Amino acid sequence: MSELFSRTTRPNPDLFFTRNDRNDPRLGEVVKRDDADYAAAEIVILGCPQDEGVRRNQGRPGAADAPTAIREQFYKLTPFRIVRRIFDLGDVLLGNTLEETHDRHSEVVRQVLEDGKLVIVLGGGNDISYPDGRAMAECFGPKNWIAVSVDSHLDVRIAEERNSGTPYRQLLDEGLLEPGLFYQVGFQTHLCSPVYYDYIRSLGVHRIGLDMLRSRDAIDTDIKEQIRQNFIHYSDSFSAFFGFDIDAVRASDAPGASAPSPTGLRAGEFIRLVQYAASLSNTKLIEFSEVNPNFDVDYRTAKLVAQGMHRFCCGTVL
Predict the structure, then answer these.
(1) What is the pairing mode between strands 8-9 and 86-92?
(2) Is 191 exposed, middle or buried (0-12, 13-18, 19+ CB in 10 A)?
(3) E strands of the chain, at which residues?
(4) Quick count: other Cβ atoms within 10 Å of Cβ 41?
C-alpha cells in the first residue's frame, strides 16, 4: 500500500468543499483522503494531470488541469444516495516522458484493482486509456475484460509516438485487448478515418456509432438496450472498463473539450451511459478524459463529468 502513496500526490485539501451545515452535507466533507482510510474504501478516485498525448496528436492543450477542475465541482455535490465509501488517492506523479507517466499510472491502477476496489480515473488526455487498459489486462487477463470506449473518434491511429489517438491501437496490437470484447460507442463517421474503421471492422470490434444510437426516437432507452443486447451473452466473470471521452458530447453541452464538435451525445445521454456502467456488477474501472478547462463555459463540462461521477458512485440500477 505504501507504494501507492509514494507514486501519487495527495489531493489539494482546498478542493474539498464544505458549507459547514449539518443539514446540507457535501461530498467534500464525506470523501476520505487520509492514507489510513484507503483500506476501507470501495471506490478510489485517481487523477492523471497531463496532456502530452493531446499535444502529440496536434490537439489543443489544457486537459492537464482537468482533474482539479472536475474535483472542484464534484466535491460541491451532495452525497444523496451515495452509500459506498469513496477515497481520493490524488494524482499520479508524472514522469519525464509520457511513456514513463503511463508506466507509473498503470502500476497504480493495477494495484488498486488488485486491492478489490472500483476505480474512477480523471484524465488528462485520452491516451490514458492505454495504461488503464493495460492494468485491466494485467489484473484480470487479456481475455477476461470488456472495453467500452464512448468517444466521437476511434483512437486506433498509427503513429510514430503514442498519443491521445493511439490507445486502443496499442491495446489491440499488444494483445492486451481481444477485438471481440471491444465496443466502440458513439463515434461519428465524419470524424473517423475510413481506413481505421475498416481496421476495427476487420478485427470484429463491436461498433455502435452515433447514427445507430439515433436511429430511433427513444434514444435514452435505446442506448441502454442496444449495449445490453451485446453484453447479454457474457457472464459476470468478465470485468468491464468504460472510457468516456468528453469529445463524445456535443459542444453546446460540453464546450470545455480537447476536440469539441457541434454534434454528439446530449448531456442526458452521456449521464445515461455512465449510469449503465454503474448498473453492471462487473464494472471495475471508469475513466473520464479530454476535459479542457481552458475552454469551459460556466464550468459546464467539469460539472457534467462531476455529475457522471456522482451517478457512478450511486451505483444506480437502470
Answers:
(1) antiparallel
(2) middle
(3) 8-9, 43-48, 86-92, 118-123, 145-150, 182-185, 206-208, 239-245, 283-289
(4) 20
Number of domains in the chain: 1
For the segment 265-302, what is each residue's pLDDT rounded down to a tens digit? Answer: 999 999 999 999 999 889 999 999 999 999 999 999 99
Whole-model pTM: value is 0.95
Quote the domain boundaries for residue 110.
Answer: 2-314
> How far from 279 is each of 107, 167, 224, 314, CA to CA, in Å?
27, 26, 10, 9
The answer to whether the beta carbons of residues 67 and 122 sit under 8 Å apart is yes
49: its cell numbers = 494531470
Rounded Cα distance between 10 and 35, Å, is 9
User: pLDDT (tens digit, 9 = 90+) per residue, 79-96?
Assistant: 999 999 999 999 999 999
C-alpha distances out from residue 150 to 36, 40, 104, 175, Å: 35, 31, 24, 21
